[in-house]
What does this fold into?
Amino acid sequence: MAKKVWLSSFLVMVILASSIYFVLPDKVRIDIEKTRTKYSVWINDSWDLAATEYVNLYDGSKKMRAKSRELNNWTDGYYVYVSRTSKWKENITTIQTYVFDPNTPKEELTPLKNIFECMNCEGKIVHYEVRDISYNGATKEITSPFSFGKQMKIEWQDGAYYSKVFQQKSVDKIIIKYRPQQSHEVYRVRLFDPPIVTAYIDGTSADADVEMGPVNISGTSTTGTGPPDLVVCLDTTHPAYGVNYTCAENETSFIFDVQYFRKEELNNTDTARNITCVENINSTVYLRAHQWDVVKNFTINLTGFPIGGSLPSNLDIFVNDTLTYTISGTLNSSALKVEEFDDSSTYQDFNSTTPVVHTAEFRIPKTATVVEAYVNVSGFSFWSEEDDTEDEADNLCQFTTGSCTNLPYGYDENISTAAEVKSGEPVNVDTMFIWENYTWNVIWTGDMTWNYTGSVPGGSPWQVGEFNVSIYNHSSSSWKRISSTGPGTGTQTVEYDFHVDDFGLNSTNKFRTQTIGTGVSIHSSTKYFEGSLSWDINPSMAYVEAGTPDGDREWNHTALVTTTTKSENMSTAINSFLENCTADVFGYCDVPLYVYSGTAGGLNLTNLYILYTGAGWNPVSINITHAQSFLDATSSTWADIPLKFESATNGTLEISDINFDYAGGNQTYEITAHNSDYSAEDKQNATFFYSRFELSFPQHISALEFIPRRPTSKNVTPYGQTATRPVLNVTPKDYDGPGFNFSMYMNETYSCVNLTVGNSSTKSASQLLGSETWYDLQLEATDPNYFGLWMWADYACNFTAWRLWEPEFFFRGCCLGCVCDIGVS
Amino acid sequence: MPVVNIKSIKPKVWIPPIYGAIFKLTVTRSDSTVDDVTDLVTEYEIEDVATTGIGRFSFTLPNPNEDYTGVWTGMEIVRYYSDYDTAATSLRFRGRVEKVSYIGNQVKVIGRAESLIVQDITVTQTYSAEDTSNIVIDLFSKYAPGFSTAGVETSGVTLTVNWYQKPFWECIQECCTAAGFDCFIDASLVVQYFQDGSRVNNDEGIVHDHNLLEISDFAEDLSQIKNRVIVYGAIQEGIQVIYTAEDDTSQSDYEIKEEIINDENITEYTQAQELGDFRLAQLKDPPVVGDITSVMLATILPGQKMWMSAPLDNLPPDKYKVISYVHTWSQDEGYKTKVRIEKEPRKISHIIRDRIEAEGKKKITASNPFEMRYAYNFLFESDSGTHSNTAISNNVLYPTAASGNWTSDARGLDENVTDCYLIATGETLTGVSFEVSGDGGTNWESINNKEKITLSTSIGKFLMVRVTFSNADTQIQSLSVQYKTE
It folds into this structure.
């Protein structure tokens, strides 16, 4: 009487009088009998015997017979066990144990284990035999694992001295033999039903040709006709997708959208090349491309190596003599430095009289990782001194017009009340004149000295009376004289030492100078009244901040800056800035250093030291417009794009990781569907073709316009079209392909206008366009067979206003025999 | 996702209307009599424009029997209808007759659009950070309430201005300029205020090889190029802000062409720089505007964009903004519409708005901020009024003791004085108080310097002012009482 036990929702055990069998419904059935085990798989709605397993002992070439065999089953609460125990002569006992996992529906794990133990078997032969298999190959030796018909698979442990599959007339078989050496030996040999994975291109499990663009790739894992239940992954050899692009249970798919092919070698098939750079002498390498190729992206990696201690530096890269990329600094991939500012100087001076944030910048690759970054900061006395010679160029103020040039830093107002003296007119200035040439606003700390010199050249044609010069301070809404010379002639100088205590720390003060004279006469427009001024103060309350201003200063100094100090390590701030900066066309960013002094004075940046790692400039992007221009201009079918490198110093330059992405010709990519451990896989090849073509209007026509005489006109041709001149010319630019069918698609129709398109001037042979349908207009098009398109519009409208219909026409080439996506956007 | 080689083209399929444009022209007299002159006119012109001007019209019709002599005397309403249909029923233009001439056996009528009503009004108003659309609505509600403002769209651009007796339409233009908007009053007397280029007329088209007649001046206008802009700002303590913006390329191509901007509102170098650079960017390249003449258009309105195509004349199919248009008909020329279009609309900048605001700020010190109608002024060049411990000498009024008062003579008025605004200049004005009286001194009402009051207790037809001194140092150099009457 049969006893049926549901071990789980998907594994059934049935105990009969002389056997026990397990069933994974619609997948696998395993009948364990006393002398054999049968494996059946579910095919065409019935169980089909896939293999019968026997385990026997041989004594030499003689098959031994068991004295008794019995079956037992039990469970440990998780796994289910069935054992076949056989008693042989010479006190030999064999136990074959099958282990089942009720918690998995996977047929490749049913049984989970098959363990054969042999006690006292030394000198005998364990003979594992599988019969009733379906095998179409030749008799041969095999290795574990081995797959055969009806999706069956066998795997066995190492140590077998014999393993062979037999092609026979009656029943094919597999035999595996072990020779026990010890009194207790354990062998694991497992026969099971493995999964099948299949790769599909556009739903077909076969190699396929595809027009460059998207195509559906899918993979399934099945057990014959049974429902799939295994992991399947998909690999491609296209660089944008790669290995395990998608994985899922049972089946998976993705849109394999090939937008470019990649070439990774130079014209001599080198994938990397070392060139020797000689100072300011260029070297050229070439990359071969077809004249019809469309360049999508072009990058290379560059690494510098020393020659005699010299590395390539300040590298210019040209495409066909057009500068396409510049790398500043030294190309040292192990330790890179920036020690100059943007303007190629090694120092930056800033001075001001009021609080102003100045900016210094240095240039560094956006991809750089800065390890160390320092700059030295020093304060210097900010001074200005104007000479008092009578040459016009250096003068502060022209006496005759009052206009001032070459004014020193710091003052923001110019007051000249002497402007009334006319050029060339003798004037006797008997009364006092006042020339106030500066008003100077400044915030300062510490001490400062301000010297002011006024002079009026004596002698003919001048007549000089007496004058004095003064320095005034603006205090309490009025000007107060704080120092002055007495009346005199010639050059007079007044000096005043300013002290903090005089006016208060950090206060804003205004000063001005004044010259007052009497009895001056002027005869020439070429003479100038002059003053000169100098002062001497140092900055304070200063800081330097690198990168994005965040209040975290890399150098900070509150007191008077009189010495040189080194900034903190600015690497964190710079790296943070580089993360967010927008690189220029060469991949570089200008990193700002903000320099500020809260009081008047000068700040000086020196010893810039930026150390960064990695070849931060890589990958180097070659301007694709330059490369494309070269191809468009060439008359050669295959052309070598010249890449010219010019280094400012000697060294070796390695060019590697060439990625020339393009559309043109064809490329084949292998699609692999596989399970997790690649124990099951299926491969298909997808060959993509790029059926390039170009559209052009006739000369002097720039748009496609239908302009009817009346809203009911028929056979209206586009503006510019004649019987002998199509409105569109199509020029195929495909190569290395089968040719293509040229087709057209219109996104919408209009209620009262019909459009017809054809490749001849005969409308009746042309195609009336419907909505959202691709129509073949030219079959088997290929370079150099260009062709034209003629169009017609038939109107039947009656609007009481102007209307403009703007449908969208799409054109595509589809390589012959290829899968072509029908999408338009 | 399409294949990589896909290409697309958007054709232009022009569909003309089933009927040509048709018009109707009527004149409505003050007694509501409607004269339909559609079939009588021998020629006409209807011109309309947004923002920059005012629409106008003229038409001529035969008058051999003097049927129309003296019929129209001015301010009659002219209505122009046009459609692409069998009858013209859509009102497109409305104006007022301003001049009627009789020449030979013809009568010629000339007039302007209804917006002429606001052309001669001046505005004195202050707005602070107010959306320009609200300003437009407020202006019309206060100065031209006969127009609906239902067509005013929100600009989102605020403006701070002080207008002092500024022509109404110039105020509207400043709002437009600041916001990048257009404005016009449509034929239904609705104010249309909308973003420049935002209104598209999809019912019109001018298409080569169909209704395009002539492109008369659609070319680069080199005369409008300026490639050196010199900005002179305010002179402050003898120093003037100066900035020059130049474009070498344009100067090389077109020789040096200068524009000088004098703007006292510019007090900082950066302001001058912004303005100079902005103007240079606007002017350094030839503006591309032109006139296009087509067979008569029926539906175009001011400021709209419409479809045009004349690729051989460098006018690829696209929507172009119509700056202005003129419909004309004559027996010799037939029906035509000439449109002036802007190929590449110029951008509006905040700089222009800033200048408007700066200009407005200057007006805050204007002498008549409350739109008074009359002024009673005293320059004290000669003695007048009644003194009590005061005197007039050396063009000033002053106390002769520690306190005193002076009362002016009364000015007799035709109507009652209702509002007064007092302005006094002089020294130590803290030591003086003012009173005005509208009833000849029977009652007095206090008023402060630069204060406007509405008289309540002294309303009358005899205006007087009284000055009371409490400080011997006070001197009044001038005194003005601005006032309104009933």
Observations:
- The mean pLDDT of chain B is 86.
- Helices of chain B lie at 132-143, 168-179, 248-254, 269-283, 350-362.
- The first helix of chain B runs from residue 132 to 143.
